[in-house]
Amino acid sequence: MIKLKHVNKYFYQGEPREVHALKSIELEIERGEFSVINGPSGCGKTTLLNAIGVLDEITSGEIWLEEREIAHLSPREKTEIRLTQMGFVFQAYNLVPVLTVAENIGFVMRLQGYPAEEIRQRVHELASILQIEEKLDTLPSLLSGGQQQRVAVARAVASKPKIILADEPTANLDSKNSIKLMEMMKRLNEKEGITILFSSHDAYVVENARRVIMLDDGALV
User: Fold this and answer.
1) pTM to 2 decimals?
2) First-to-last C-alpha distance (Å) of the chain
3) Does 185 have pLDDT greater than 90?
């Protein structure tokens, strides 16, 4: 479903210093994968995830989503791809503070123009799976970190995107909540067939992924 062809990413830290953050990445992600990008801090995990999610520009190479090359689309086209084809889970949660849990979960669906009743049903379905039904009318500031991350996961999967990109989703959680979040995301992957790609150095995430993609110094190993 995702194919990267000879993807390179350079950063410049003052002349003439050049940082080669991604080095000739060749990678394929199949539909329905539950996989993790793993490696030491600074190896390029987040950079690779952001490249796949067309959040950041690459220096050279190609990134394909099914039959479409997406790395060199216009900014407007990339925004449309992110809105309609992808879901994102960040370690900082990134919930809208003035919206309730229910409104946060349904946020992307509203942007996509789903009918209100369909949004309501989907919100309740996901809240049940992720065990946050009793928090639907609550603001994010009144939730624990684990609850906020579950809301972020629900928002990411609500519109049934083709792929979920999760950047260190357990980084701010204790071990108990990390285990619970992984179990719930695995259930969503199996129940709904959504492809899920993590970046993480969390041992529990790595142990529970079905595929581990190892990076070191920007290169696949």
Assistant:
1) 0.90
2) 21
3) no
